[in-house]
Every structure is written in structure tokens, then in C-alpha cells.
Structures
1.
Amino acid sequence: GENVEQHPSTLSVQEGDSAVIKCTYSDSASNYFPWYKQELGKGPQLIIDIRSNVGEKKDQRIAVTLNKTAKHFSLHITETQPEDSAVYFCAAKTAAGNKLTFGGGTRVLVKP
Amino acid sequence: DAGVIQSPRHEVTEMGQEVTLRCKPISGHNSLFWYRQTMMRGLELLIYFNNNVPIDDSGMPEDRFSAKMPNASFSTLKIQPSEPRDSAVYFCASSLAGRAEAFFGQGTRLTVV
């Protein structure tokens, strides 16, 4: 089955700096890659996603890149703010299946 | 839209008791997923339904766990009997069949003592 690895597990950045989280996946048939943000005591919230026919997608301060050949994808947060502090999860899904396989999560702390 | 609604938000129960977690998916969504989140294992898919039919329950840890979806707007996850190692946060998520985006509820934090 699909296996998703996520790094780093924790990330501390100064407010205004950029944060980058990287994920790799094992199943070359995966074609959908969402990113979720989870704040304390809440459920994961979808913040951005990318499909395998696209190499990059941007939404304001967040962007995601996908390298299908290398089977890795990344989340980039620019101009970080304290409210960006949360746990971020990457995930992958194949076209055939309907289930998401999640990475282990990255705890991001933005220091004011 | 109210989003995915789960109840209760918190549950504390004694070992051996039956526990029932409830989920109301987003109206119109026809895929429903139950996940478990722990520090050790992260987010694990337990089971998912399409059009109220269980499609993949390979993530259900053992026979003590069961899930039902009697109609399009309600699902339950039952643990009987519960054990301390079942302590975790249980999430329900829903999506539209044919659409990849899944939306999560707020979760139920289960503590078995």
C-alpha cells in the first residue's frame, strides 16, 4: 500500500521567515496530494491540494510543489505569522482508491 | 454549511464498557471515513463507506470495533468492550464521491480508564 513520509517532525521559524515541509510517497499511482492544518483541539483542515497533472499551485502565502518523477511534494509558507503555528499533515491518494494516506505530521512554531 | 458534526466531543469510560461515537457528514456527501489519531501512530484510516456501504475496513484494529452507516446522514463507530489502548482522538470525515477533497469533523477524544 501507499506509504507517506514527512519531514521535519518539528519546525521552528521566526515570524516573517519561510517554512518548508517535505513529503515523499511510494505509490506511483497516487495522483492527489492534499495538505491539512490541525490546530490544537480541532480536526484537520484542508488548506491546499495539488493533482498530479500540475507541478505547482499557490494560494496567497502558501504554495505546494510536486515532483512526480522523484515522488515528492512540498508545502511552502512565506511570511509566516504566529497564527500559522499548528501541525501540518501531507497526504496522498490514488485514483483507484478513495482513501488518504497521511504523513506523520510537522509541528510548526512561529516565534513572534 | 455546518460541516461534519461529531458527538460527543469528549468521552471518558471505564475499561470493558461499550462506547459509541457518532458522526453526521456534510449534507450531500456520499463518502464517509473514520480515522483514529494517536501520538504513536498518527492518523490512521479505520473504515470508509461509499453510499452507506462499507468499502474498506482493513484498518479496523480488531473485532471489538464496528461501524455502521444506516443512512446518508448518520454513522456510528462502536467499541465493545473498550480497552485503555483505545484511548485516542477519533475523527470522521466526508467527501463527495468523485471529488478528492475530504473534510474533517472536530473529533471525539476518547479516554478509557
2.
Amino acid sequence: DIQMTQSPSSVFASVGDRVTITCRASQGISSWLAWYQQKPGKAPKLLIYAASTLQSGVPSRFSGSGSGTDFTLTISSVQPEDFATYYCQQTNGFPLYTFGQGTKLEIK
Amino acid sequence: EVQMVESGGGLVQPGGSLRLSCAASGFTFSDYCISWVRQAPGKGLEWVANIRPDGSEKYYVDSVKGRFTISRDNAKNSLYLQMNSLRAGDTAVYYCARDTMTPAHSFDHWGQGTLVTVSS
């Protein structure tokens, strides 16, 4: 099974800061990685798929990069509505999927 | 507009059974793989099961194999999850999620979730 490890588990930031979240796969997954944002009490929302492709309607301050085993999600200038928990998901193992444990973005 | 609405959650005793439903609309349901994803209280996301568009193949996370059964009725645009031999560890919000069916296979639409509580 492919394991996904996110770091850090939580990150503190101020509005306007640049934030980077990392996701590492236990084996190579090419570019088959997605990122989701989840706010309390809500369903996750797809932000990025195929490691770096922005889902329609997602602000351009979000970007993704990486391939193989190491991936990053970057928010170039954090906005108030971005404080949430972020999850990576490997989709290389389709139809078997795995999520990372999540990274909570909190206000500094 | 794509919509997915789960129902059927509730309180059940350990060892009991529950059947979840997911009603879909706004897209051609029979064209898509659909997954169940769960989230225990205060915890992260866990993929549980998925089913091919025609229902011919089904896949499960190891922890639910032999206890949970995913199924679908394309005529009714509905997805189901039959959960048997429930354990406290199955307590979670259960979401249905649509697979994009591109090589990227991400989940582009989710329901609002239904809470399953396993407790005596």
C-alpha cells in the first residue's frame, strides 16, 4: 500500500504570508497527486489534481508542484478564507486511494 | 449543477448494521466511478470503497473488507454502502465523492456527509 506523509501537521501564518505544505509518498506515484481544502463541518474541496493542475474556480494563489515521491502545495499570499485543513491524496494506485494525515493552516 | 446527497446515518450498536445512500443529480451518474470516504471525529480523511460505473468492480480498504458492501443503482442515480458488523472504529462522517474519470482520478464533487455513530 502507498502511504502518504504530510508535513507539517500544522502551520501558523498571517494574512499575506507565503505558505508551503509538503506531501511525501512511500513509493513513486508519478504526478498522480491531488490536494484538497477542508473547512470545519464541510466536505473537502478539490484544489489541485495531477500534482500541478488547478481545478476550475480555484484562485491562482494556490499552486502545486512535484513528481515521484515529493510534492508541495504553496499558497503565495494567504487570505482569511484560506485558514483550513489541507489534505494530499495519491491517485496513482487507482482504484485504491490514500490520503495524507492533513495539515492545519492556522492564524498566527 | 452536480449534487450528491448522503442519507442513512445514525446511532447503531456495535455489531449492528446500517445502510447508507447517496443520491446524485446534475450529471450522467452511470459514467462515473463513485467512492465512499470517511472521517472519524477530529481525524483525517480515509478512502473506504469505490465502484466502477457499471458496478462490475468494487474495491475496499482492508479494514472494511468482508463487512462493508458498496453497490449502485444507475436507474435511480444512487450509490449505497451496506455496513455490517459495525465497530466503534467505524464511527465517522461518511461522504460520497465523484471520481473525475480522467487519468488524474481525483474527487471533484462531494456530498455533505452523513454521520455514523457506533456505540452502546
3.
Amino acid sequence: DVKVTQSSRYLVKRTGEKVFLECVQDMDHENMFWYRQDPGLGLRLIYFSYDVKMKEKGDIPEGYSVSREKKERFSLILESASTNQTSMYLCASSSGANNSPLHFGNGTRLTVT
Amino acid sequence: AQKITQTQPGMFVQEKEAVTLDCTYDTSDQSYGLFWYKQPSSGEMIFLIYQGSYDEQNATEGRYSLNFQKARKSANLVISASQLGDSAMYFCAMRKIQTGANNLFFGTGTRLTVIP
């Protein structure tokens, strides 16, 4: 079974802090993703990566950056956290097959005060 | 850009009855894939079922089936014999088949409540 692990389930940070959200997958998947989930808006893609050191912007990349130094790890960075970044953050991974689903972690609920 | 529409914010169904959750999509691509996910209150995203745009048969997985109508661009999820454990958020998603990363575009979800 694919396991995607997010380092924190709940996180509370102050406005202006630099925040790191970590994600690790154990299935040697090429593709990794960061989504944010807000009520009424569904899941929106922030960034994705299809290889080590490769990254692509998703639909809402502003205020975020990512790092993928190793295949199994994909980090989301909030350079200067703001209250409008309070949200649920979901990491996912998948193989390159067209019919392969995304496998999600359990999510990190971030609150910025 | 791809767009996924789920018009039902909330649905109720009696236990043991069948329920259909609606999903329509908008794309000019010929090759794409459609997915349904379940998100219980615990927050995990559980993959349910997949349909490829060139698949002639509707996908089925146990009590889940996907009513795929390509001309109408709809991919409704049918849950038969509803159980209390089916109460959850359900998300429809689409993937554009292309080289590179294969991200999914999600709808806004439907909250299903199963009534005993």
C-alpha cells in the first residue's frame, strides 16, 4: 500500500513566520503534489513536481514555494505566512500512468494567527 | 483550463437506497481521465473509481459505479445500497492526459449524509 506521510496534523503559526510543510512517500513515485482545501472551493493545486529538483506552478502558487531535493520528499514553504493561508494542506503522489490515482496524505491543518 | 462542476453541495439518502452524485466537466481534450474520491470526517482522501475517456464500458468497483456520458460531459457516481459509513464528502476530479505530471482538477464536492 502506498503511504504518504505529512509531518504535522495540526500547526499553528504567527503571521510573518516562515513555515515548512513536509511530505514523504514510500512508493518511488515520480509525481508529487501540494493542494490546499477550503470549504466550498474543493481542492486547488498549489505546486507539483514530476522529478527531483523539477517543479511546476499550479493554480494558486502565490505566497508559496516548494523544494524537491530527493524523490521521496516534497516540501511546501510559506515564505511569510499570512492569515489567508489558514487552510488544510494535502500532499499527494502518483506514478506516471494515466489511470493512476493520486495517493494522499492525511493533511496538515494550518492556522495562521 | 479544465473545469469540474458538482452542483449538489449536500445530498441525503436513506440507508440501503441508491444515490447518484452529479459531476459535469468541461474540456476540449479528447484524452482524459475521471476520478471520484471520498473524504470522511477523518479527512483522508480515499480513491473510489476511475473512468478513461476512451473506455466504452462504465467503470464499476463494488457498490460504486460511474455513469459516464461522454457527449453530455458528465461522470456521475452511483452508490448502491447506501451504508451509514458512506456519509462523507465526495469529490469528482479530472486529469488531462499529457506528458509530464498528471495532476487532477477537482470539483467543489458533495456532502452525502446517509439517514438510518
4.
Amino acid sequence: AQSVTQLGSHVSVSEGALVLLRCNYSSSVPPYLFWYVQYPNQGLQLLLKYTSAATLVKGINGFEAEFKKSETSFHLTKPSAHMSDAAEYFCAATSGTYKYIFGTGTRLKVLA
Amino acid sequence: DAGVTQSPTHLIKTRGQQVTLRCSPKSGHDTVSWYQQALGQGPQFIFQYYEEEERQRGNFPDRFSGHQFPNYSSELNVNALLLGDSALYLCASSSWDREGWSGYTFGSGTRLTVV
């Protein structure tokens, strides 16, 4: 069965510091992988997606993620955190188009 | 270009009541999926509708049902509400096009509170 694990339910970084949010997946077939951001009382906004093309995926707002099959990982990074990056981030996987399996989320706090 | 529209944005219901949530997909999308997001959790797949039929269902009881209309809009119905049904309900639309699968576009959700 497919599953997604996000290590660290809460992550704090200083403004201007590197952001690293971790995501590992388990799947019997190569999945599609996604990162979403959710601001309070809002829906999910797509940051980036991996669909078996380039393993390094660039997204919006300066975020990027690297698909590493050997590590079954899809970690999200941003070189320099901004206060506006404070939000909850979800990693998701699907091996088809029917349903996503989401991780439990990581709440990012950016310290001034 | 309108994204996914959900209504209402907030709703308060009493245990045992029934509720209907509505979703209009993004223009050009023909598939609608529903997710339940409990507080502090990731979204959980409820079901997906395509061509007015339920294509796949997650691990939710029959109290959860849905419908898709010819214009691709969709409704989620929940009967005999329980306190545990309190959650943010997200609608997501998608489609296939020349570039392949579009991926989901999510709406802002309906916050359901059962008291």
C-alpha cells in the first residue's frame, strides 16, 4: 500500500535561512509526487510536482524538490526563507489519477 | 479563469442532520474528487466522480455519497452527521489534455462543524 511520511510536524527556521521539509514515500510503482502549501483557513495550493521527467523539480515561490528513487524521498527546499513562507506544507503521492495519499503535514514557522 | 469554487464556505450542523456541499470545477476540468481534512491532519480521499459516475472510493462509510452533474459540478452529501465528521471538505478538479494529466486544482474548502 502506498504511504507518505513527512518527518517533523513542526519546523522552525530563521528568515533568510535554508528551508528543508522532508518527505518519504513508499510505493510499489513509481509515483507522481507533489508538494502543496496551505495557509490558514484556505485550500491547497500546488507548489510543484514530479511526473517522471526531470528529477529536480522547480516550483513557485523559489521552492524546489529532488526526487531520489534510491532513497524514496522527495524533500522540499528553499534557499532563503521569507516570512510569507510560514504555512503548512503537505507532500502527496499518487500512482494513478484516482486519489492522492497525503502526508500528515509540516507546519513551517519563520522566525524574524 | 475561475478556479474550483466551493459552497458554502462555513456550515454548522447538529448531530444526526444531513448536509450537502457543492463544488464547481475549474473550467476545462471534467473530474471531481472530494477530500476530508480533519484538524491537524492531511486530506483523506473520499471519492472521485467522472462522467457522472463514482470512479473510486476511499475508506468512508455509505453515509457519504455524491453526485456529478452534466456540467461537471458535484455535490457531496453526508447523512446522519457525527461529531467526527467535523472537518474541512476539499473539492479538487482535474482532467486529461494534450499534455497529459492536469493534476488536481483544489478549492478553498467548506468548513463543516457538527455540534
